[in-house]
Amino acid sequence: MSCSGCSNAVQRALSKVEGVEKIDISLEKQTVVVDTNLPRETVLETIKKTGKTVKE
Description:
Layout: H1 4-15, E1 20-26, E2 31-36, H2 40-48
Antiparallel strand pairs: 1-2
């Protein structure tokens, strides 16, 4: 993610997923921290659908 538009796209996509409680995105660190009981794969797939590269 290189801009606020990118982080907003990820924020919107994750906020639509039922079970996501909190989302913390840092453009500086290039990280997304999600508080949820959902499987990790569900979160990663949601981020990938925005077109962003996911590093585990």
